[in-house]
Amino acid sequence: MGQNCTYVLPTPAIPFSNDDYSKYSQKYAGEIELYLEKDIAGLPSKNLKDYKQAYQRRSEFILGLVKEEHFLVEDGLTEKLNELVVKILDANEIREKERLRFLISRSGIPNAFTTGDGTIVVNLGLISRLQNWEQLAFVFCHELAHHQMNHVNESIDKRITLTNSDEFKKKVKASKRGEIRANQELTSFLEDNVLSFAQHSRNAELETDALGFDLFLKAGFDKSNAISLLRILDEIDEPKYELPSLDSVFNFPSYPWKPEWGVSHLSGLSLVKLSKEEQEKYSTHPQIEERLEQLIEKGAEVKEGIPVEICEDTPIYDLEILEHYYEGYKEFEAFILGLQLAQLNPKNEYVQAVVGNCLVEFSLARKEHRYSNLVPLPGRLLNETENAVATFLDNLSLTDLKEISNAYIERHGLLNHDDDLSVELKNKLKQLKEKK
Ligand SMILES: [Zn+2]
Questions:
Q1: Total-model pTM
Q2: Which of 50, 230, 414, 426 is the one with CA 20 to 30 A from 175?
Q3: How far is the CA of 427 from the centre of ligand 1 (A)?
């Protein structure tokens, strides 16, 4: 990331605890259901069934996340969030303020979104890439602008109107009768219209930035932080941390690194990435360049040396993401992030315990023939880091996996504790020894 930032991961750091979660999950669920009822009562009678379904699905989606403890409650970060939100809402006229709900999700995907029912979500994966709080404020202002212009409900509206149009129904009917040409026609009709929605969203993104920027300025934030946020988004596909060299992490006196573990068996062709056009065809985010230009036109300055007040501490958020991956059975993602964080501080016991548990889980999965559910095959759908790790794991035999796990556990003293992860590790090791 353009700015230099030293990341710090303290030794005793562990993920946040969510002791009061049930209190909040009840509150959120109550609000979500209340507004769903209210929204359904106000729906148009035409195509009512479709609207109802769309609104219900949306609520189910958010309720599901709430129930699965996707969100942070009552910690330093949510306090900071509330401070920013109050500042923005106090300075601006926002429609239906009372239904707004700002949530921080533990997801590692660098994203933020609005669901159209008043829920605005920012993922930790995005916060962990930020340098200062005002950048987070701009993310909120952008999402708030989507809410203000009712974009999500409008796009539900458009989709339902389209799929209920006579032209669309006629094409579906023809295609059901098995006419090949009609089928092609339906596909191209859909493509044209879906694309024009996407294109509408491209313009909508610019419009959203423009309004979001106004909200941001009225709340008294520094213009240059809107610019610096867009610059971060521009580089968001670049990895935050380097992957440590596997041949040193997994080289043990008792079981030395074998060069063939690092050899990729992929041909050049299977690594060809999606083209820029392919990626952009359905993209709802216009190129960041365009968005930057617009903000500069609106008077945002490009300042050097913007504040990096939170940069240093962001590995704490990555620790939380690590827990979310691991507890959510995403061992492959947890393993990669664990290796990256272990590089920042090899003495962080939580991180090492996750890496050790993942290794034993991979061994168990290999033994029980469910490895392919856990670790993806190397290929073009993975990024460079994922490919390096998937290739390494793919090259290991069950014996290699077991030996490496044991050596890693030994090196980091992972059996010398009695916390949850150590207990889990001991149980897994027992399972691994048992004959099937
Ligand atoms: Zn947007």
A1: 0.90
A2: 50
A3: 45
CATH topology of domain 21-234: Zincin-like (3.30.2010)
Q: Cα(314) to centroid of ligand 1, in Å?
A: 23
Using a 10 angstrom Cβ sphere, with 0-12 exposed, 13-18 middle and 19 or more buried, the burial of residue 147 is buried
Return the closest-CA partner of residue 21 out of 63, 62, 71.
Answer: 71
Instruction: Report how far ligand 1's centroid is from the alpha carbon of 261 (Å).
Output: 42
pLDDT in tens, 394-435: 999 999 999 999 999 999 999 998 889 999 999 999 999 987
Query: What is the CA(113)–ligand 1 centre distance, in A?
Result: 7
| 141 residue type, one letter | C
Contacts 24+ apart (CB under 8 A), 119-126: 119/32, 119/62, 120/144, 120/147, 121/71, 122/81, 124/72, 124/317, 124/318, 124/320, 124/321, 124/324, 125/321, 126/236
Dihedral sign from CA coordinates of 419, 425, 429, 434: positive
Sign of the torsion angle spanned by Cα atoms 86, 87, 90, 92: negative
Pick 205 or 135 by higher pLDDT. Answer: 135
Report how far ligand 1's centroid is from the alpha carbon of 40 (Å): 25
Enter the tokens of residue 36.
Answer: 């769903």
Q: How far is CA 8 from CA 11, 311, 314, in A?
A: 10, 9, 8
What's the pLDDT at 272? 58
Please classify residue 143 by burial: count the beta carbons closer than 10 Å to its beta carbon, then call 0-12 exposed, 13-18 middle and 19+ buried. buried
φ, ψ for residue 325 (rounded to 5)? -60, -50
Q: Within 13 A of 323's CA, how many CA atoms are on the CB side?
A: 22
Element (H, E) at 122: strand 119-123
Q: How far is CA 16 from CA 69, 76, 77, 99, 339, in A?
A: 12, 10, 10, 27, 20
pLDDT higher at 185 or 197: 185
Task: Give me the residue spans of the domains in the chain.
Answer: 21-234, 246-273+312-433
